[in-house]
């Protein structure tokens, strides 16, 4: 890398495409033709949609044209080739001396998502008539554009064999989905890299119908030579521009995040203006968002800026000379990560459009940028460097391989394609042991002290439970969760339980949609921004749900406890901390930022004791186990805790239980503390009643029985008359945290919504 790299491959002069293809070896395969029926020539339809796919298809088209004894070629042109704003690029097909059989205007203008869909629909309407007239034996489709999807869909439904070029590759945006969709429609595949071949095999495509050929455009790139490249540079960038002292910019919209891609384009132009080098800017493709990108160019005056040349199209022969001798290429075109590597030209790949592509060492990725500085820094790093030439995508011999592959196609083989699925275990759904299995969930309760895993049946029975001390570090904790879950899942077979999924109850703020712990309580260290779903799901091959422990307690009540059949109720957990969950119209409320039902942090006094959250006067600062322990320690330090009938060992730690015991034995100060705690909790419940108006309040946790009377008294004294009729009950569930975690799974399997 850098200035010590081998010298750049100099692309010298070349004439028309035919010059190369006259030298293609004529592989006489008469036996294949005889198998297909005497002197039957393979009728090949090549459909091209835009300037990019033509650069890949043209070498194949010339190869087919050079062997008329084997092939008949029909060319169909559609898409942006026929639009003036995109350079009327069908003309370069005519200049290459191809007869265009059909021109189809299929682009619905608008350059937004709807226009892309309408364009696919318009192509689907027009293509059947063309294919009926041509009756090709095989259609060659390239890549991952929406136009190509329409072509493949039409051909597949009309029983025409499809050869797909560049399947199996991985990139960003909707292109990935379209490419893989075309793969499933195609009968034959030509891929460019070993990884792409492996992807196709993994997608259950028949290995015998996959050809690892390399990229057809590399046949031209690696043989391209032009001694007069300076005249091309002068024509497009000006006579004063020297080799390796200019930039080529080509950036397209990202259809899955148009707003961000336009912002990225704006930052790119700002960086290029600041970098102050002559730059050739090509207009973006026809995808949704391109119109907005053109507006950005015009807003910044790029078309009239002395350092910029803005063009709609450059012929491919000339384009490769421009990128071969550029100081740098910048943008998000696949050309940057694929073809440009053949010359070792430095490339800056922007954004996510090419995420997953194999790249050479000449490519520097800028995945995201919130200012122009990051892009400007990348330009300073890359501009003017020279890298070794890369052959990741081809060795210059793709076309001969593809032609040989085409000749080997037996038209008498059944048209229906077959998929090569990996072997799977025999279906045991009719086995009596399987039928009698108990549908169950793996429930995980992540507490401040203990980590518990249980097998819970559909009826709420805890079949088996495992308990370990909760490790202090993230790595140890996650490893222990996985170990305990794997052990429990294995044991489930022995106790005749069929595990449907894993539910996790944890303290802190949780995003249940993604299965991520966003922020944890201070009781659980190193437990923020933790993805729990992915590693556990990957290890057990089961669906995983995650939620806050208070929400899980509410779900447990809804499925197994007092909340069953109740439309609106609130659960309050009284334990080490204070938490809860709110069920409204039978559904759990999470809130816009997953912070709903943080009931322990309802403020009931402006100058109350400090809470662990940093605020003052929260319910949790009065009524939690930690708060009661704090007050018990104060009494003990002043020798005011122990009364007759109580004793403590010297090493024994003072706890909330000692305070409760002292109050029961007549300690007036302990009684006062518990009364204050009960009043604080009661005031919090009154606030809840006035906010969400539930018909039931369920107190859960180890302190619930000590608070229920005080809460009812405060409601009768402080609440509006319209809510005083609310029922306040103590939970009868033995383990709401585990049952709630199980409910995450069991509710989904029975109702299919959560």
UniProtKB/TrEMBL annotation:
One of its GO terms (cellular component) is cytosol. It catalyses: an N-acyl-D-mannosamine + ATP = an N-acyl-D-mannosamine 6-phosphate + ADP + H(+); UDP-N-acetyl-alpha-D-glucosamine + H2O = aldehydo-N-acetyl-D-mannosamine + UDP + H(+). Gene3D superfamilies: 3.30.420.40, Glycogen Phosphorylase B (3.40.50.2000). It holds the Pfam family ROK. One of its GO terms (molecular function) is ATP binding. InterPro entries: ATPase_NBD (IPR043129), ROK (IPR000600), UDP-GlcNAc_Epase (IPR020004), UDP_GlcNAc_Epimerase_2_dom (IPR003331). In the C-terminal section; belongs to the ROK (NagC/XylR) family. In the N-terminal section; belongs to the UDP-N-acetylglucosamine 2-epimerase family. This is Bifunctional UDP-N-acetylglucosamine 2-epimerase/N-acetylmannosamine kinase. It comes from Taeniopygia guttata.
